[in-house]
Design brief:
Blueprint: E1 3-17, E2 24-26, E3 30-36, E4 45-46, E5 49-51, H1 58-70, E6 75-77, E7 87-92, E8 96-107, E9 125-132, H2 159-174
Parallel strand pairs: 1-8
Antiparallel strand pairs: 1-2, 1-5, 3-4, 3-9, 6-8, 7-8
Length: 181
């Protein structure tokens, strides 16, 4: 019999402070990814995440998993008080059925110099990095940085479509709000 397992996948965009504006802004042209070290999906890039532990909420599990895999504390955002995931995907393996709740997160500003917060691969990731979501030139304070493109990486499952959904939500819901992220 298969055991159900709840997991989280974190779509994390960086924040920046636009010149002349008091509030923080979300940069949805860049997202954090990790290269998986172990199966399923070893050597493929995916959204950081993992299993929710007993006693954790989806949001606290997502924040813990991002810290473990990427070495960075982020603010995981509930979109509605009772529904913190913006979509769900599933994977069925021989011994368990894995349901993933996708959570939106924002990385803190690293410096006023336009640098992205540093990421550090945890023990179950081969690598972690910030990547560009698309090849079109977007207005971003980080546009001068040489970053890989999402579409050029070997990805696990529906990463591109999940990131596209997260961009729409982040731009519609969190764009231009105050520093209260």
């Amino acid at each position: 019999m298969r055991k159900p397992v709840l997991g989280v996948a974190v779509t994390c965009f960086p924040l920046f402070k636009a010149l002349g504006r008091p509030q923080l802004t979300v940069d949805t042209s860049i997202v954090a990814l990790c290269k998986r070290k172990f199966d399923p999906g070893s050597n493929f890039w995916s959204l950081p995440g993992g299993k929710v532990e007993i006693g954790e909420t989806i949001i606290s599990g997502a924040a813990r998993e991002f810290l473990e895999e990427c070495g960075l504390k982020v603010n995981c955002l509930p979109l509605q008080p009772l529904i913190p995931a913006f979509c769900a995907t599933e994977a069925i393996y021989p011994h368990f059925h894995y349901a993933l709740a996708h959570v939106l997160a924002l990385a803190p500003i690293h410096s006023e110099k336009g640098e992205l917060p540093p990421l550090r691969a945890g023990d179950d990731a081969d690598d972690v990095c910030w990547v560009r979501c698309c090849k079109e030139l977007e207005k971003s304070p980080y546009s001068r940085l040489a970053l890989p493109f999402l579409s050029d990486l070997p990805l696990v499952g529906p990463v591109e479509s999940v990131v596209a959904q997260a961009k729409i939500i982040a731009e519609g819901v969190y764009h231009g709000q105050s520093d209260s992220y």
